[in-house]
Specification:
alpha+beta; elongated; binds zinc ion; disordered C terminus; 13 helices; 35% helix; four-stranded antiparallel β-sheet; 4 domains; 405 residues; single chain
């Protein structure tokens, strides 16, 4: 890109010694951050210092600049174009936040509609197509019913195609850096990643006091991505869809208590305690020890209901109805969940029961490791170490319930 071409749009543009071009970020200037120098690299990449180290946010932030400079086909970004009806309509799909795409409908002279939508949602596609029709009185050709159907069809296909292209680009993107899949991670710079639903991270930046949402987070060492194994994809792990401000702790406790009250019948004292316990699970990784919440009571007194209601409010709840010790280990290791346990399989003398008791007896402390012994085919014992720290909720008498029901 030539300096003069850039100066047409950004008059203060100048060359750096490395061949890149810099100019004041017009987007940051509008938002009151003056003097931020956007850098246009020789390979076409654009970067604003406000979003250093946040590739996804940077790409989104710099998009208007890229469009102004006519670099829509940035090679690092998935971009697809479809030409319909001999050029009467051109559809463009590019990356946007939170699993959505930026969809543009245009011909070679004007833009009919642009929006950020989910391509797999019929309503959003319809609204977008309606938006194309609305600009009709500006001399834009009419589309008949058949053509409108075609447009919807093509937009749907674009969705599939876009997924494939972006997956391919993502794979290249990582470069030499290892990809690390995590459910939760505190980065060296203080940012906290927490996996939420839909294969996204909520990323809290303590310096900016803000939460952003990303499909991956790149640092100097690695590219972090959310877990995407079968268990997570099929919804075995309950994850929040987004994060909201809760006000103060008293308000939050009141809301949690109200939720428990709606779904379960427990005495006031237990309800208040449960609300605090649910909140505690969210800071379990800051603690050296944690208590278990255990329901005891008469048959049919609603223990299961109570334990599930409270449990599902906790951090990353997993409901285990008849856990074997082995599956329990795998889950704790992979997801650091809050386990909601039915004791229905805890037959006395059973190997799994003994293992489970070991887990429960020592699993409340971070420092405790449980050695697991397994008999191999040759009768030799192999030993593995696990660290089963994590909150657990237990419904002791579920087994009895199930027999009765
Ligand atoms: Zn900027």
């Amino acid at each position: 890109m030539r300096l003069d071409d850039v100066r047409v749009h950004y008059p203060d543009a100048r060359h750096e010694t490395d061949g890149s071009i810099v100019f004041e970020c017009p987007l940051c200037r509008v938002e009151g951050r003056l003097g931020k120098l956007v850098k246009l690299y020789i390979n076409g990449a654009i970067s604003c210092p406000t979003y250093a180290g946040m590739p996804d946010a940077n790409r989104e932030h710099c998009r208007p600049i890229r469009e102004t400079l006519g670099q829509i086909s940035n090679p690092r970004q998935a971009f697809i174009e479809k030409v319909l009806f001999d050029g009467k309509l051109i559809l463009e799909v590019a990356q946007a936040e939170r699993g959505k795409v930026r969809l543009v409908a245009r011909n070679c002279v004007s833009v009919f509609n642009r929006d950020v939508i989910s391509l797999d949602r019929a309503k959003e596609r319809n609204d977008f197509i309606k938006g194309i029709l609305e600009v009709d009185d500006n001399g834009i050709p009419n589309f008949d019913d058949k053509q409108l159907k075609d447009i919807d069809q093509v937009i749907k296909q674009l969705g599939d195609e876009y997924d494939r292209v972006s997956a391919a680009i993502d794979a290249e993107d990582a470069g030499d850096k290892p990809t690390v899949k995590v459910i939760s991670k505190m980065l060296d710079d203080g940012r906290i990643l927490e996996q939420i639903a839909g294969g996204m991270f909520a990323v809290y930046d303590p310096q900016r006091g803000e939460v952003a949402y990303h499909r991956k987070v790149e640092t100097d060492e690695a590219v972090y991505r959310p877990l995407d194994d079968d268990f997570v994809l099929k919804g075995g792990l309950f994850l929040p869809e987004n994060l909201i401000e809760y006000g103060d702790e008293a308000t939050l406790d009141a809301e949690i208590e109200a939720c428990i009250y709606r779904h379960s019948d427990v005495p006031d004292r237990e309800r208040r305690l449960s609300a605090r316990y649910a909140r505690l699970t969210y800071i379990a990784d800051l603690l050296e020890e944690i208590s278990y919440l255990r329901a005891t009571g008469e048959r049919g007194s609603g223990k299961s209901r109570y334990i599930c209601t409270t449990g599902m409010i906790c951090l990353r709840p997993i409901l285990v109805t008849s856990p074997s010790a082995a599956s329990l280990y795998r889950m704790m290791d992979a997801y650091h969940p809050t386990l909601i346990i039915d004791e229905c399989n805890l037959a006395v003398g059973n190997d799994d029961t003994q293992m489970m008791m070991m887990v429960l007896n020592s699993g409340f402390q971070r420092i405790a490791d449980v050695s697991r012994c397994e008999k191999g085919n040759d009768g030799q014992q192999t030993v593995r170490m696990f660290s089963p720290f994590g909150p657990k909720l237990i419904d002791r008498d579920r087994a009895v319930h199930q027999k009765v029901e």
